[in-house]
Amino acid sequence: MGIKFFEEKKFFKLDAKDTSYIIGIVDEEKFLGHVYFGKRIPDEPLDISSLLRLNEPPFVPSKNNRDRMSFYDSFPTEYSTHGLGDFRESCLVIRDSNGHSVCGINYCSHIIYRGKPQLEGLPATFGDKDLCTTLEITCCDKVLNLEVTLVYTAFENLDVITRSVRVKNNSDKVIKLEKVLSACVDFDGIDYDIISLHGSWARERRVQRMPVGLDKRSINSIRGESSHQSNPFIALMDKDANDDYGNVYGFNLVYSGNFTAVVEGGQFDTTRVVMGIHPTNFEWTLAPGEEFTAPEVVMVYSDKGIGKMTRTFHDLYRNHLIRGKYKDRKRPVLINSWEATYFDFNTEKLLSIAKEASKLGIEMLVMDDGWFGKRNSDNCSLGDWYVNEEKIKGGLKYLVDEVNKLGLEFGIWFEPEMISPDSDLYRAHPDWCIHVPNRTPVLCRNQYVLDLTNDEVVEYVYSRLKDILSGANITYVKWDMNRQLSDLGSSFLPKEKQGEIQHRYVLAVYKLLDRITKEFPHVLLESCSGGGARFDPGMLYYSPQIWCSDNTDAIERLVIQHGTAIVYPLSAIGAHVSDCPNHIVGRTTPFETRGFIALAGTFGYELDITRISEEDRKMIPGQIKMYHKYNDLIRTGDYYRIANYTENHQYDCWAVVSKDKAEVLVTYIQVLQRPNYRSRRIYLKGLDENAVYRNTETNQAYTGSALMHAGLNIIGIHGDFKGKLIHLVKEK
Ligand code: DGJ
């Protein structure tokens, strides 16, 4: 059993693979305290009261009620509430029917059971009874008659503990929730660093490292989506932790809307980490008897640096989050029309690309933005999901059938959550967009956001998607979202629920995704948001892959994919070989290098193959062969970062090692050639020390130990932006 309750000493011990997490119930009032999170330790003997400093001033209230406030303000609480004197970051802020915001919760009861529950209306990781144990601790505020249930699941095969929270109003009055975060962990000490993933459009998920200070660091999005700018991930780590060494605690919110993660260094040398839905623009009316569920936070502990944390997240998401037909399968090699034609295509053009693609071994054609309404630029037609037969002559079914005849599957682009002011839909239903009456909503990419809090709007979107997807043999959908939410107002919701728009919006997106994925289980869904603005575990629950960035330049992608892969598996990273000079940065890189870098993702093409040079075109069949040869390894293996170009400014290197350590693929990219420096030694990781590995190209043999400690010399690369794959196989 991964979770135990020690009745006499009143503590819970949650054991994941090599991780322990301990919660204590203390004093007569049954405060719930956080005792420990870290490397697995034996069950007993354990001195909970000393670890919680209960025998030191200010003491517990039963011994020193004079200083009750100091107790609240220093006790490492398991879930912080606002109003009684814990002035550190709180997780729960309420407003009762009298306008007061005071709330304090104490232990009431608990249950422990095998398995893991799903969360009502929300994505979450899943696990069977043989792998997972769940603890639900119900705490109560007896004055408010409010019940707060803290839900924890320990994965016995991984260093993972998940958390979520349910808040139930058992009173006969309405209670407003102003903030309901999902997790709170109080760490001892403040000598930690934080990493987070920061960015912008075309510059997503750059790793940022900073120290914990005696103040608050907050990583957040209030943009209505997880965003380009931030990602719902942080890791707290020892100051000297690196990729291979040190204690690292990763936190990732399984949610696609506004989020906050706050790290607070406190006056008594403790560090509080909280994470959940951002309280800005959040409010929830909890009528008598109603319950609110906060999204899941995944907590990963690593005793061996950031690298081990990464591999745990990858394993968890590949096996316990991503679902559907493509969960464990190679994805078809696709060619996408966006960078090939932008809006300028028709049946003839698409068929000419498909014809060429089929000759080269490409397996799917994806028709991106521009096939519907009157859409020839981004200034109209979102919402009018009817095929533009002036462009798609003969209709969609004809085009899809012709593409299928060429031996290719067919995929299509949608932006279901949006509406253009210049659309038939908007002309018929101007009140269907999110807006505030008497204010013209702010345009972004010429579009508004649909008010998905209104079921009628959702029904319309669903019926259009269903109609298109049922009308032809479509096996892939790219689900895009090209703007963030502003002008928060809904003509559908009553006044007192206007503060619920953003969370209701996210719930509606999930519901829609759920319906579409259930109705069309054979369709491969790739989510996208102006590139990679919604790359989060919430979306991964519905779509096994996410477009990583509009920036497809190979060198830029080194940085973006490096940051993304800190948390998310390579199998989920949408990556394509695109044309040069690159459309975002104007850089020209070798076609071969573009292939190597796209290989560390889903792999595909995004260029007009009828127009590229013969020399580049000729490389495509070889690249596709390479994809088929290595994708099982890349999709399922352990990912090791070896060198990082953002740190050394010269080269990048990573490796994927199969789970049984029998096969290794090393990717080495020389970003900038250094004068008088023609070879470089790299040190592999994660191999079987005692095994002999043979380079399948040169036939040279090495011991695993030599490859890791003495290194592997990379020779023969001359020039900028050049790369090399090294494939090693363990000798039998
Ligand atoms: C943004 C996406 O990231 C692109 O790949 C493309 O689909 C465009 N939207 C289309 O408008």
Task: Summarize this entry quickly.
By secondary structure, the chain is α+β, with helices and mostly antiparallel strands.
Q: Into which percent range does the helicity of residues fall?
A: 10-25%
- What count of domains describes the coordinates? 3
| Counted beta strands | 38
Sequence of strands across the biggest β-sheet: 6-7-8-9-19-15-14-11-12
Relevant CATH superfamily of the largest domain: alpha-galactosidase from lactobacil brevis
Average of per-residue pLDDT values = 97
What is the CATH first-level class name of the largest domain? Answer: Mainly Beta
The radius of gyration computed from the alpha-carbon positions, rounded to a whole number of angstroms, is: 27 Å
Would you identify the regions where 5 or more consecutive residues have pLDDT less than 50? none
Per DSSP, the total helix count is: 15
Please name the CATH topology of the largest domain: Beta-galactosidase, Chain A, domain 5
> What's the main sheet like?
9 strands, antiparallel
Bound molecules: (2R,3S,4R,5S)-2-(hydroxymethyl)piperidine-3,4,5-triol
